[in-house]
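Case study 2.
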Amino acid sequence: MATKNLKFSLKSQEGSLLLMSILILSGIVTAASTIGTITMQNLRLGIAVDNGLIALYAAESGVEDALYEIRKVETAAASLPASGTLANNASWARTITTTAASLTKTVAANDSWEINLYEPDTSLSPLNNSIKSVKLAWTGSGSEWAEVKITPWTTGGNLDTPTTVLFSAASNPATINLQDATTVLYRIQIKALYSALNDLTVTAYSGLNLSGSAVPLPTQITLLSTGTFNRAKQAVRAIMAHRAPLSDVFGYVLFTEDSLIKP
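Prediction:
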């Protein structure tokens, strides 16, 4: 009887050890599988981050290429290619918009803002949508004035006499009537006097006294470049003036007995 009990006890222990071994082995397999899954996820994440950076640099390349061609080479925006491929097989695709429904900017006191109402690439061609009046709307302290200088020229290349108009805070929103003609183009410079013109919004219209329909302003370029590398995509947007604005330094005269040295 004792021998039978001993054999039964040994078999019970062997069964318990086998079960424990299976449980331990299962735990090791589960832990290894979990660690492997986490490692693979981290590797995929690292690869995705690397690909995303390359795609971002590709998108920036599309923007920088357009900036160089437009500003340095003076290539017409409509002539720029819509896509390109880099040496590392990354690529970019871009869209270029050369008009805006309206423009908004805060002009600090004694600073100015230049707005060109002509096609920069064809500065003597009539606009596709003629502009005959412009609305200025802003917020301010109530003491601000807007000095607006209008320089017109004809599509025949004849420069007209510039005019200057002053608008007080009581005139907000102000209306600027241009010439009732489709063959005249303009450069408008808005200067803030005494106080800032906050959120100054410029909107153009096809008729005098803000009549007709609102027309787009041909004064800025919006670049949207999308870079792609493997499965990663990144986008970069840049907004800029078509041409560099004229400096306000020409509106002042300096008198000195000493040499002027630019630092």
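The mean pLDDT is 83.
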